[in-house]
Each structure stands twice: as C-alpha cells, then as structure tokens.
Amino acid sequence: MGDAVRYVGGAERRARVGVRQRLAPGARAATPEAVADTLVALHGSDPATVYLAIGARLADPAPTVAETDRALYGDRTLVRMHGMRHTVFVFPTGLTAVVHASTGLAVAARERATLLKGMAKAGAPDAAWLKETEESALAALERLGQATATELAREEPRLREQFVYAAGKSYEGVHTVGTRLLKVLGVEGKVVRGRPLGSWTSSQFRWAVAPAHPELDPAAAQADLLRHWLTACGPATEADLKWWTGWRVTDVRRALAAIGARAVSLDEGTGYVVAEDVEPVAGPAEPWAALLPALDPTAMGWQARDWYLAPELRPALFDYSGNVGPTVWWNGRVVGAWAQRADGEIVWRILDEKAVGREARAAIAAEAERLGAWVGDTRVTPRFRTPVEKELAGPFRRG
C-alpha cells in the first residue's frame, strides 16, 4: 500500500484531532450537517450526546438544539439509525445506504435469525405469521408518518403478543413481538428513530419508515465507509478499524486495499491513512480546550487510546461496560472530566495536573461557560454514568 513509511507520533495525531474533529476554534463548523459530514457518525445511544457533540463543534453553539432538530426531523439531512457494532448512531443521510450495506446487512441477518429462533423456542407463532405482522406494521407506520411502539400496536394488535425470551438464561425476560421486531427492522434499515416524546435529552422515540436508499454492493460500501472514516480519524491501526466497524479483519484489509490506503508507522505499530493524507498535518493555530459529552465520537474513536488518554485516568472516566463519560480536553489530550449539577452549573475537574497550566484552566473555564450558556435550563445526565461524573454531579462538588 505504498513504499515509504512515515512515522506519525502522538503529538501529530493530537494536532490532527484539533483540526479533523472540528474541536479547535478555527476548525469549528457552521451547521450540524457539517459536523456530521466531517465525523461520519455521532453516537446516538444517549440522545443528549448527539446535541452536545454537535454543540462542542459549532462556531456559534446558541442554535444547537433548534438546528439539530431541523436536521434530524425537519430537513432529514441527518438520520438516527443502527450502524457499526449494532449501535445507534446519527449519520448524514447521504451515507445511510453505505452504512446499511457495509455494516447493517450482516448484523440484520443475525438479529432476524435470533428473533425467529427465540420465538420458536418459546412456542410463539412462526415466520409466516411474523412476516404478515411486519408488513402490516410497516403499512400502518407509513400511514401514521411517525408512531411510538404503543401507538403502532393499536393499529396492528399482533405486535402486543408476548413470548419468553432467553428462557433459562440470566437475562430471561418477557418481550412483546413489537419490541423485538422494531429492533430488527431498525437494523435492517426499514425503520428509523423519529422525534422523541420529550425534549432533546429524551430516550423515548417515535418510529418512522426509513428513507428510501439504493442497495449497494457490500464490499464497495465498506471501502466507501472506510475512506470517510480514515479521512476524519486517520491514522488508525487494523485493530482500531476492526473495533470501530465491527467487521472481520479480512473485510478491513480488503477495504484498505480497495481505497489504496497508505501505511504509516505509529507507536502502536502499523497504521493507515488515505492515499492523499501521508504528509504531515499542520495543527491548530492556537491551543484549544473542549468539553465533550459521554460517548463522544472523538473520545470513542479508536480502540488504542494511550496517545490521547493516559491509562491511569480510565477507571474514573469509563463505566464498567467501557462507555466513556464526559471528558475535558486540552490540545488533543483528555485531561479531566466534567458534569452538570442539579442546579445547572457545569463543573469540571482536572485529572492530569502535569498536562495543565494556567492557560489551560482559563480556556477550560471559558468552554464550561460556553456550554452552560447554550444548554440553559436543560439538565443533562449521561445514560451511562462514570465514577467521576457521579461524584462531580453531587450537590457539594465543584470543578
């Protein structure tokens, strides 16, 4: 994938983060669409993450909520759907076909097989019954435009049918057909999340029929997705790419070859960049600070994180499942954590004192004020809470 192998050290990778992830002031964007186009995917498991991640990267964050709502639910230039690793993300609408073909199809086949197997084991109706129910539910959703699972079940009562899922396992539970089926349809790209029932922090969503998109060749779609992601996040190792996409290593290698990726040398071993991105990248013109939300795509972007996140900070910043909490950044490195208290105050704590001086503290304080100004009266509690976030959010803790 090229003869010359250039060394890219941690300092250059951190400089790339400031520019490529739109975190340095001079690299910030004007619209949510520009943010999503650059980052490729915004984590959507926690609804608030989408808005907070966009707000951190807008030159003017004041209209973050209104503009993100417009993009998601008005213009539909952004779509919330299942993607890599069976995770909910927000993607640019133009990438939905690519994501579906490159990652969704394989996951969808497994999910449908699991549903049918679980229903059969529980003595629930067969595949023909499920297909008929599914077609009826999709037709009803088309008529309604958007609907909750409960509203949809009024139109198609068979969605209320219950069966015991994973009988005999520690996670055994009684599920409705509708709950499981909508999840499968989401992975299959037939339905997407619509407007939430509450505010922008709500995790209760309506469902909508997915926008029509062409069916692409999976291998070509994988190459396309990899090119987009490496442009924003390169260099990255095979392990990083396998982790982020959820693909087999053979798929990763085939996609790297297809796009003509170039090898570079990293502290972790061999990394890859797109062919036109081999030369050194100039960093931001001035130092920068950022307050990024839980599950932010930059904080969760790579499997190997030592070049931007010291190993000793991880126990405080991650939950037991490996989900990162709210982080404080200085010049491309995670140096602390932040939280919002019950009274609305944004508080923060430095965890890496050696990396932070007076200039950094002043810049971080300014970012906290900037965040608090646009969040306003809304209270944001991460869906996946971490030790330091819970401590900071307590009534008597200050940053």
Report on the structure:
This protein is α+β, with helices and mostly antiparallel strands and 399 residues long. It folds into two domains: 1-60 and 215-393, no CATH class; 94-209, no CATH class. It is 41% helix and 17% strand. It has a four-stranded antiparallel beta sheet with strand order 12-13-14-15. A three-stranded mixed beta sheet has the order 1-10-11, with no helix packed on it. β10 and β11 form a beta hairpin. The longest helix has 26 residues, at 96-121. The N and C termini lie far apart (47 Å). The model has no long low-confidence stretch (mean pLDDT 92).
Helix and strand run: EHHEHHEEHHEHEEHEEHHHEEEHEEEHH
Tell me the number of strands.
15
Mean pLDDT score:
92
Query: How many domains comprise the coordinates?
Result: 2
Number of discrete helical segments: 14
Q: Approximately what portion of the residues adopt beta-strand conformation?
A: 15-25%
Backbone structural class: alpha+beta
Shape: globular
Sheet with most strands: 4 strands, antiparallel
Lateral strand order in the biggest sheet:
12-13-14-15
Helix content: 40-55%
How many angstroms does the end-to-end distance come to? 47 Å
GO molecular function: DNA binding
Organism: Streptomyces vulcanius
InterPro entries: AlkZ-like
Pfam families: AlkZ-like
